[in-house]
Write a structure and sequence with these properties.
- By secondary structure, the chain is of the alpha+beta class.
- It folds into three domains: about 100 residues, no CATH class; about 100 residues, TATA-Binding Protein (2-Layer Sandwich); about 240 residues, no CATH class.
- The protein is about 30% helix and about 35% strand.
- It has nine helices and 27 strands.
- The strands form six sheets. Strands 4, 6, 10, 11, 12, 23 and 24 form a seven-stranded antiparallel beta sheet that branches.
- Helix 7 packs antiparallel against helix 8.
- The longest helix has 30 residues.
- The two termini are about 55 Å apart.
Amino acid sequence: MDKQAGASALSPLELGRWAWRRLTSMRTALILLFLLAMAAIPGSLIPQQAVSPSEVFAFREANPTLGEWYDRLGLFTVYTSVWFGAVYVLLMLSLVGCIIPRTRQYWRSFRAQPPPAPRNLARLPEHRTWSSAAAVDDLAADAERALRRSRFRVRRYADDSGRVVLAAERGRYREAGNLVFHLSVLVVLAGVAYGALFGFKGGAYLAEGQGFSNTLTQYDEFKPGALYDIDDLVPFSLTLEQFEATYEMGDEQRGAARSFDATLNYLTEPGAEPRSKALAVNQPLEIGGTSVFLVGNGYAPEVTVRDGNGDVAFSGPVPFLPQDSSNTSFGVVKVPDAQPTQIGFEGFFLPTFAITPERGPHSTFPDALRPALVLTGFTGDLGMDDGRPQSVYVLDKDGLTQLEEDGEPFRLLLEPGQTKQLPGGAGSVTFAGLNRAVQLQVSHTPGKTVALAGVLLGLAGMVTSLYIRPRRTWVRVAGAGPDGRTVVEAAGLDRVSGGDLASGLDDLVAAIGRPAKDQPEQEESS
């Protein structure tokens, strides 16, 4: 027996058609929508660089190995990662491929006349038949009026046997609702994509009294869209005048945040009249299409460092990033102007200082009830003179030597107003005061109006598809029989389950005028 030849390989064109048909199937669209939802989960559970760089930094410090893998997989930048973008683009293509042919098919069916009556109406789910002394035309006219009052499209014709038939249909907008819903998903995706391409998102950490100008150099973190022009930045400026946070002091839920309120003074453009704004969570400042959100808060201890010559080499607030619910905060102080050698510090700010043999220095409450600074000092080359950018939250220790005293690492514990000398005549450190600080997110998302329109469009489409029930109804009126009476048949078919077809058909039968002397010959309901 000859061996059968294997199936011939698909040509590139045939392979492309096959792939396109699979991609544009409704099943593939649903799978891609599910994958997009699953892909967004890490963005909700893992801190995102664009939203909270301080939390990302804290996570990397606490989990260096895991943080490195998260970086490789793009889990700190989920919504701008390659894999998320690939699912996003494929879903848009799939939706376009689904919507276009379905729209063509729907348009053809929308314009088509109601289908003719089946040969045997008694086989339909609901069927009624009776005889009447009224004329054929009168009964047909009554039926047509009743159907039109119930918002049916009605087609009247005579069948092969000369009987008058009314074919009626309603609910054709249900499919339009389905199409509008699918279109709305595409609109939302397009709006989000437009915002990602032509918008930007940045972050800045400000202490009380510090200002911010909407220029690239003022951002701690700035991520522009691929098509965003930096020259389009709105030239506003603002100053953080005051920040207040309240926490639960009672035993129940002690330390839980109760309110965050920041007071800003801002200028919409250079030379404009100063304005004031109370900034709170979910109550952003809007300036020329740019939004300023309050997304976090912390502390900025005011530190003064004198070098070995006794000169003030550094003085000002230093942002410390919160690490836990008690606002234990990590920070770095860099003093590149110190003489005869540069000085650096890293350590923790503790809002409510406590120390135990088990935990050592730690904070017991998020508010600044007993603030303290715990610092470790280093001297040497900070690496800031070679032109390479550095994070203000990272101290590069490659060229540094840790300060020691009596052969042990030297650590500072400072409370507000205290000054301590550094070993070896390296200088001194003063905890001069404490400022509150806020983390601001500045963003421009031009596609949010489009996305909102898509959401509203989706709701309208969903309501339409849920509440409109397509139904077909036929009424057939035969000429007078041997007894001189006219025979009428009515039958209905719901195209989706859940409708009260029997009641609707009974209402139609009742609306087709029958004198009291008329008696139904037969009524069927199957």
